[in-house]
Amino acid sequence: MQGNGAGDPGAPVRAGWRDMLRGAGVLPNLAANFLVAAVMMTTLIVGPFFLGPGLGLSEARVGLVMSVGPAISIASGVPSGQLVDRWGADRVPQGWGWR
Prior knowledge:
- With 99 residues, the protein is mainly alpha-helical.
- It is built from 5 helices and no strands.
- It is extended and about 65 Å long.
- The protein starts with 16 loop residues before the first helix and ends with a helix.
- The relative contact order is 0.05.
């Protein structure tokens, strides 16, 4: 089918979301992303309930402990982006030994 209604009448119609999910490696990557998100959300929601009573921390100290991870993400975000810009997205995981 020709024409996608986005300016070029001869351009092929874009694939739908079902076609994109059938692509190579999409579903395993989507499952891994969901697993990471579930672990992160569990840590952020369940963590404070165990930090406070379990370790005897005040609310302020629980907040301080819970803010360490996001602070590290903020501090490492720009250098990581610069590293990817300099080396390329394919070489960065290899540089850390992840592939």
